[in-house]
Design goal:
With about 80 residues, the chain is an alpha+beta fold. It is built from one helix and five strands.
Length: about 80
């Protein structure tokens, strides 16, 4: 199975995923990134912070960028 790396990118820098996750497809990796973004935003909101401008860069084992998942795209308006 391929290994995908989920690097969290903000205006102040990048948190690099050193281990990655083995997943079957890029779609599985996208789903995991969405769950990760939602979990990180939930924790931040409880601390009174808005981190919705961050993004997750999904990369392959060679470090090539495969997909960008903006945190803001992982939530829907409640209206």
């Amino acid at each position: 199975m391929p290994r995908f790396y989920f690097n969290v990118v903000s205006d102040t820098g990048t948190v690099v995923d050193p281990d990655g996750s083995e997943l079957a497809t890029i779609e599985d990796a996208r789903r995991e990134a969405v769950q990760d973004a939602r979990a990180l935003m939930s924790q931040a909101i409880l601390s009174g912070k808005d981190i919705s401008a961050r993004k997750i860069y999904i990369c392959d084992e060679q470090g090539s960028l495969l997909l960008i998942v903006p945190f803001a795209d992982t939530i829907r308006s409640a209206d």
